[in-house]
Amino acid sequence: MIILLSPAKSLDYETPASTDRHTLPQFIQESAALIDVLRPYTPAQIASLMDLSDALSSLNVARYAAWSSEFSAENCKQAVLAFNGDVYEGLDANSLSEAELDWAQNHVGILSGLYGVLRPLDWMQPYRLEMGTKLANARGKDLYAWWGDTLARYLNERLSEQGDDLIINLASQEYFKSVKRKALRARVVECVFEDWKAGKWKVVSFHAKRARGLMARYAIQKRAKTAADLLAFDSEGYAFDEASSTADRMVFRRRAES
Questions:
Q1: Where are the chain's structural domains?
Q2: pLDDT at 257 over 70
């Protein structure tokens, strides 16, 4: 099993990491080439390209300038500990044990516009580059063209090493589109989280993102091997809804926020 997550826009490089253990990203050369594409952009151009404020565009231009192909404790943090959005608050990786982090390292992948796929303990330098960014490059008009079928082939290799063929997708469609389905030799199971709101079931973005992190944490702590191992997920009031689910789309619902 591989569980896929989206990255977060918010980063935390201030809180000390809960572990010193780390690995290096798999696609550093690809990342360096993307940084070379980004470095000539001015703050105004980055603001227009990514729809950012002046302050955020200037921050990220500085990040691109500082980015180095030499990864160290001085300029990096483990990816699962550096991301700081709703998904990662639900995952709460800082409280995972060393054994749980080991399991996550082998079974969790974080899709990234700059890094391709990150394992939880991969060192990561700060950046902002969403997968949907229309960054023209030598391979095409956007990052989907840049990554091509690279990420699908990488996931195929990881699953082959496990002797498995299951992907649990907890990433957004923006990010999962970077995994070319035609090249992917795996069964993909989507997890959907819905809340009862205004008289109907709907996906509430904030709650759904947090629930994705909670589900990833559940899978890590249960050492899940199959999709069926996730059916008992009940964090913060969610429960599996069999009637609304299919074999490859598991729906979890709750009527009130916990």
A1: 2-127+135-254
A2: no
